[in-house]
Specification:
453 residues, alpha/beta, 5-stranded mixed sheet, 43% helix
Length: 453
């Protein structure tokens, strides 16, 4: 019997406001709160709430035989609390069924695994803490940002204690092998790998409403015939996609919700398919081989590599300048500066700078709020430059305080007083009141409150 493993990614970035060169030195609030809130509320109404309600209904109707897995970024969770708390509550209801698994990932949906093992581990730990707090269970399986994976990244994940990880079933890595089996990491074979079947996943995620597709319309019966076909070998068919597929990328009027409403019971009736969470699928089947992946791959674009984020000079310059600040940020350890450091790492910022406009152009333009990659780069660098200046000032203040008034000569050269940055709670475990509860966000109607120095 084949195992069907549905996994959904939930993420919304903290979008930066239009930040001009002339804002530097005067304006230290970097986020576009209006746009972020509006998008979260829109996606909640069109996707998160109706789809969560449908999944809950399907789990109940199928008496727990229908199971799914999620990973939700820390930034998305923060926006749920602020703009759509009912979404967070609906996810808690799914968690209570025991049929939904929540995976670990980087808190900020970052590319940290490509540059800093220490930063990577810190973000994963913060995210796991958040998942345990919100849903009552610490994650045992891992999904890296955009399914970025390599042998080395897998080894780092295994060191963190995870025994299951998701990855892309890329042709250039698999060769003749099928993605529908469990594999093992080449450097630590204790780590089991579930590989995305990108064709069957993208049939739902991208091609479902494409009237030019030779298989349109996609019906449940047709889809099940593909899943159960004798020429589709394997133990586990992994269907991984963005959760926003439902209602956002594929509008409700395409029939996407009806498709999902009928699929579980029809699949179970075949007697050839069963559902499992990511961890259950990994434990149910033994690895058939070691997967060798010396260079990082992802689930993005035709190349399935990391060039969507680090494929041109703009992206690499921004990326390297950001991470050059890491030691200074960690030494300062100020809640406001930590928070900006966190959301500035989000991979979306670098994705907006992509200049890949060939076959992948429609995908990049759909997700890009900027008119050009150069506008995205300049806006990001303006914010980062102002942040760097204020970070230097704050570091100087701390050095002076530690040196003492009578020993100021040992401090860095004189500097202006730093301005406190935006008033947002730091991520899980930081920036909390004495009762352990997160600080309340600044009210929209008033001025932004400053974090304590």
């Amino acid at each position: 019997m084949k195992t069907l493993c549905f996994y959904f990614q939930v993420h919304q970035p903290m979008r930066l406001k239009k930040y001009r060169f002339f804002n530097m030195g005067r304006d230290h609030y970097y986020l576009d709160d209006v746009t972020n809130s509006a998008i979260m509320k829109k996606v909640a109404e069109r996707c998160y709430l109706p789809m969560n309600a449908l999944l809950l209904k399907l789990i109940e109707q199928n008496e727990g035989k229908f199971k799914v897995s999620f990973s939700i970024t820390g930034l998305a969770m923060e926006q749920f609390r602020e703009s759509a708390p009912e979404v967070l509550e609906s996810f808690r209801k799914l968690a209570d069924t025991g049929c939904v698994e929540f995976l670990a990932e980087t808190y900020d949906h970052s590319l940290a695994s490509l540059i800093s093992e220490e930063e990577f581990a810190e973000q994963v730990r913060a995210h796991s803490d958040l998942m345990e707090k919100e849903f009552g269970k610490r994650p045992t399986a891992f999904r890296n940002t955009e399914l970025i994976y390599s042998d080395g990244i897998g080894e780092m994940v295994a060191k963190m204690g995870f025994r299951t990880m998701l990855a892309e079933g890329a042709k250039h890595i698999l060769g003749w092998k099928s993605p529908n089996f469990i594999y093992a990491n080449a450097m630590d074979q204790r780590l089991r790998l579930l590989l995305r079947n990108y064709k069957l996943s993208d049939d739902i995620a991208f091609r479902f409403s494409d009237r030019g597709w030779d298989q349109w319309p996609l019906t449940v019966d047709k889809y099940l015939s593909w899943l159960t076909a004798e020429d589709v070998p394997g133990d586990a068919i992994n269907l991984f996609m963005d959760y926003e597929t439902f209602g956002e990328h594929q509008n409700a009027d395409t029939g996407i919700f009806d498709f999902m409403a009928y699929l579980p019971s029809a699949a179970l009736k075949t007697g050839e398919l069963q559902f499992a969470t990511v961890s259950e699928a990994a434990q149910a089947h033994q690895p058939v081989a070691v997967l060798s992946c010396p260079h990082a791959m992802s689930w993005a674009d035709e190349e399935r590599d990391i060039t969507a984020w680090l494929g041109n000079e703009l992206q690499n310059e921004a990326f390297n300048k950001l991470y050059a600040l890491r030691d200074t940020v960690k030494a300062l350890d100020n809640p406001g500066y930590n928070y900006v450091w966190n959301f500035m790492q989000t991979s979306d910022h670098f994705y907006y700078m992509a200049t890949k406009w060939l076959s992948d152009g429609d995908v990049h333009s759909y997700f890009n709020p900027y008119d050009s990659s150069y506008e995205a780069f300049m806006n990001y660098m303006n914010v980062l430059s102002d942040y760097e200046i204020e970070l230097g000032k704050k570091t100087c203040e701390k050095q002076r305080a530690e040196a003492g008034a009578g020993d100021a000569a040992k401090c860095a050269p004189s500097c202006d007083t730093a301005t406190e940055l935006l008033s947002k709670p730091a991520k899980s475990g930081k920036g909390k009141k004495s009762d352990g509860k997160p600080k309340k966000s600044a009210k929209k109607s008033g001025k932004k409150e400053s974090l304590p120095a």
